[in-house]
C-alpha cells in the first residue's frame, strides 16, 4: 500500500482536520521555498506520515508545531574565496542551516559537492531533526556544505578551501551551539583542516566543535565505520523480525564512500555476498563477490575510481553510469550513494528481480514513488532517518568523550552503536504499531522522531 493510502486508512479520528492542516503547511513550504524540489520532497514525506499523530494529538496543531518545524531557525550562506595551485582566485558558496535546537545543539554534517544548493542543504537539515531525535541523544538538527568540488583538487587546495570556509563558518558554530561533521566530500582530512583553522580563530582547543576528527586529536574510534555498520545492524534486525538474515544473502550496495565501504564490510562479516558497488561515474559488478581490500585501497588510500577495480579483477565488469546498478538481481539493496538514486523504474526492477529488503544508507536515496513501490510490494524497507542514524549517533558519542576528556575503545563504541540502532528499530516499530500501521518504518521513524521534538518545543514555549 502506498504511503498516502496507508495514512488515509489508518484508524484515527479528526483525520480531515489534520489532513487540512498538513496541506496548508505544505502549500506554505512550496510558496516560501520556490523550486526547492528536494526540500519539498523531504517535507512532504514527513508531513504525510504525521497526519495520524496530529489527528490524535490536537495540541501539536494548536502550538503550530509543523509551521515552526518547516522554517529553519536560520540559514546562512556566504562567499568562500580561495586560491588554487595556479594562483587563480576561485569563489564558492558555503551554507549552514540551523533547523531546530529543541533537544540539543544543532548537529549535522557538511557536504562538499557541486550539486549543493539551498534545497539540498535544507532537505538534509530538515531530515536531520528527526534522525537525531531518533538516536535518543541530545542533538538538534542542522546541515551545511558548499558547492565546492573536491574531485581532482590537491591537498593544498583542499586545505585552503577548508580554511576559508571555516573563517566564515566559525562565526556560527561552537560545541554548545552547532556541531558540524562530515558528509559527502568531507572526511577526516577536511575535518582536520577545518578544526585546525577553527582552533586558530578562537584561540582555544574546543574539541567538541566538530565530529569525525582524527583519532589522535579527539576523534572517536568507530566513527568512520558507524553509518555503514549502523545501517547493517538496523537492517539485520528488520530481517530477523521476518525470519531472514544477511547470512547467505546476495547484496548490492551503491556508492564506495565511507557509508558504502563499511556497510559492505559489516554485511560480509554477517555472511552476505556483496556483488556490486559504484561511484559517481559507474558501477562494478563482480559475481564472485566484491573484494573489499581492493575497494578500500582504491578509494581510501589511492583516491582512484571504481573503473580501475576491473584491472585487478578481470572477472568483474565495469559499467559507466550509476543507475544500472539496480538492474542487478539481489536479495538486499543498500543504496549508500546519494539522494534520489532509486527512482520508480529502478524500484520496480528491484521488486521484479525479487528484492526482499531495502536499507537506506544514504540520505533520501529513494524517491517518494520508489518508496511507494517498495511498500506496495511488501518489501522490507528501512528508511534513511532510522537506518543511517548510526553515523550521527557515534558523532554524539564523540561529543560525549570530548566533554569528559576521555576515549572509549572500539568495542565500547560498537556496543553502544548496536544498542542505539536496536533502540531506534524498536521505537520505529512501536510507533508504527501505536498508529495502526504496524511494520511501516517510514511512518514509524517520522512519528517517533517527531514526537520528542514536538513535546520539547511545547515545553519550551514559542
Ligand atoms: N552526515 C551524516 C548524516 O547525514 C553525519 C552527521 C553528523 O555526524 O553530524 O547523518
Automatic annotation (TrEMBL):
Keywords, in A-Z order: Oxidoreductase
Transmembrane segments: none
InterPro entries to which the protein is assigned, alphabetical: Aminoacid_DH-like_N_sf (IPR046346), Glu/Leu/Phe/Val/Trp_DH (IPR006095), Glu/Leu/Phe/Val/Trp_DH_C (IPR006096), Glu/Leu/Phe/Val/Trp_DH_dimer (IPR006097), Glu_DH (IPR014362), Glu_Leu_Phe_Val_DH (IPR050724), NAD(P)-bd_dom_sf (IPR036291), NAD_bind_Glu_DH (IPR033922)
Pfam families: ELFV_dehydrog, ELFV_dehydrog_N
Presence of the UniProt keyword Cytoplasm in the record: no
UniProt superkingdom: Bacteria
Annotated SUPFAM superfamilies: Aminoacid dehydrogenase-like, N-terminal domain (SSF53223), NAD(P)-binding Rossmann-fold domains (SSF51735)
GO molecular function: glutamate dehydrogenase (NADP+) activity
Domain annotation Glutamate/phenylalanine/leucine/valine/L-tryptophan dehydrogenase C-terminal: ranges: 220-461
Subunit structure: Homohexamer.
Family label: Belongs to the Glu/Leu/Phe/Val dehydrogenases family.
The name this protein goes by in its record: Glutamate dehydrogenase
